[in-house]
Design goal:
- The chain has 138 residues and is an alpha+beta fold.
- It has one domain: Alpha-D-Glucose-1,6-Bisphosphate, Chain A, domain 4 (2-Layer Sandwich), CATH 3.30.530.20.
- The protein has 3 helices and 7 strands.
- Strands 1-7-6-5-4-3-2 form a 7-stranded antiparallel β-sheet.
- A hairpin with a 5-residue loop joins strand 3 and strand 4.
- Helix 1 packs across helix 2.
- It is globular.
């Protein structure tokens, strides 16, 4: 089944090496991986290699809901790009590009069929915006 791709992006005022590290280091991931202030990421595991897996626990701060966002890496090009497949077989690719000392991140991911595309785009973009804010203020 062909899935619709959703695209999000941001420009971060930091070099690629710093952005790559913050994006993939579990200690950093727990600091930025949430779409809104009432959510958090209490734990993160990341085996950044082809065939390696990641698992980030996403949880409402009030304890009302939690889930694991997890997948398996299908491609890893350090400080350039990574691709992964989620448990429901959706795929995502994240590209990191130097833009005169800043870093352009472009993410393309398969839409899921439960929620409207704009809701999915807004949620993933909110997490990416949280990441940008974290890196630029670190």
């Amino acid at each position: 089944m062909e899935r619709k791709k959703i695209h999000i992006s941001t420009l971060i005022d930091a070099p690629v090496a710093q952005v790559w590290e913050a994006y993939n280091n579990p200690e950093d991931i727990t600091q930025w991986n949430q779409a809104s202030p009432d959510w958090h990421c209490p734990s993160s595991e990341n085996d950044l290699r082809v065939g390696g897996t990641f698992k980030n626990k996403m949880a409402a701060k009030d304890g009302s809901f939690a889930f694991d966002f997890e997948g398996t890496y299908t491609a890893v090009a350090p400080q350039q790009s990574l691709s992964y497949v989620l448990g429901d077989e959706r795929t995502a690719t994240v590209n990191f590009e130097d833009k005169n000392g800043k870093t352009q991140i472009d993410v393309d991911f398969d839409a899921e069929s439960t929620n409207p595309e704009d809701m999915q785009r807004d949620g993933w973009q909110a997490i990416l915006n949280s990441f940008k804010q974290y890196v630029e203020n670190k």
